[in-house]
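Hi there. Long-time user, first ticket. I'm pasting a complex I've been working with (about 498 residues overall). I'd like to know whether the download I got is complete or cut off, because the file seemed smaller than I expected. Thanks.
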Amino acid sequence: MNIIDLLFQPYIFIPLVFPGLIAAFVLLLIIIWLERKIAAKVQLRYGPLYVLKPLGGVIQTIADLLRYLFQEPIIPKDVDKVAFLLTPVFLFGLAYLPLVIIPISPTYYAFRSDLSLLIALALATLAPIFTLIMGWASNNKFSLIGSVREGYLVTSYEMPIFLSALSMAVLYNSLDLVEIAEAQRKIWGVFLNPVAAANMLVLIYMSTSKFPFEIPEAESEIVAGPYTEYSGIIYGLVMGASYIKLYVLSLIYSILFLGGWNPSPSPDPLISGGVLFLKAFILVAFGAFLRAVYPRFRIDQAVNIGWRIAFPLSLLSILISLILILGGVSFGS
Amino acid sequence: MGVERTARHLRAIFTGMKYLFIGPRLTIMYPDEIEELPESYRGMIEYDWDSCIKCSLCAMVCPADAMKMYVSKEESEREGKVVKRPGINYTRCVFCGFCVDICPTNSLRFTGVHDVAYYTYEEQIYTPQEFSKGVPKPIYDREPKKVKAILDEKRGIVYEPSGRS
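Hi, the file is complete. Here it is re-exported in full:
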């Protein structure tokens, strides 16, 4: 087996190339640029323009990345050095890890499990612990306030996000992402259970601190929240982590509600994977667009939304799934 | 209650989308396009050596202490009395135009030049000799397009190429 064949083996290709590390990295570079462009357009401006002008400054992020790479990473004197330096790595790694389990075609996946939805969600929810550790290790009041805010938010979004996702698992009678996507050949999940779809979409933006819920990092209040003390490429890592997490959750959301790779013209992994990637990209871009529309909620308003609105809605979405099953909608075995 | 709130959120997103796809852009691409200035624009000041009657009114009226009278040695020796001429310090000037208004012989006049960069503070202090040589010309890479701002009822500010150049 030569090296090219090895690269296209699913257990290498998915984590490393698509939708894994390289695709995530390209998306990261594009989406940060796009976020600035979208915000600029809504505010009647141009945004980044002069780096590669014919394409609207699309490699601005690469220039920024180079700047981060050559900037001196400052480690303050009183921080807990091991925790301070390791948490960004774990944060980024854990944000990216669920990509391993995302299938990109009915037959192309790194590994298939009966519980792949649960595994993906569980891995995606590990990251906030490191945000908390990061805030404590930084030895800075802004970091601590930011990470405690993150902790508050976790308690309010984590349970509804699981319940909304699991309501679809109830409906499709499976926790396997491949089966879930295949079950939506005729009708997408978003039309079957719109309550769960709307609920989970809002909660995804909440969990990745996209704009109306950009509470942990609230720049005008607490500098950069948990990331205040970071500089250089370590800051690049922690900033990238939340985008990667959004990308992962968008992929899971696309599989759960937007039909995964359906309608795909062919079962070829690259084409069906492209369809899936496009859906996830639109969701990520919409999250970036919200920055231009919304101000920031207060922490109590966001927690209120989590417990008083999202939580009952997620229970309601399970009820809707059960009613649909009783009404005769059935998938799978 | 909940329905009304959801409707408001959707309206906000819709408005954002409207601007994202069909909204205008108000940016003027500055070094490539420059806005045509009105006649009475208060830019950098030019000084006419010959018509100046050395009355010192400009220095007296200057609220920012930017205009200062310098003793002109040559002329003082020639005329046998102290002759002073104005010089300007652009680090202090607030472009209020009092000196231009008060000048009895219109020796001080406004020009449209406002986009000049200096490397040091000292360069921005003009002695009477330098002051009388006129204002520096702004340097552009490419010849800029002149545009003028037009208020459009629907689109807001619109920049259109102006006839004059």
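A couple of notes from our side: The longest helix of chain B spans residues 2-22. The helical segments of chain B are 2-22, 57-61, 73-79, 98-102, 128-132.
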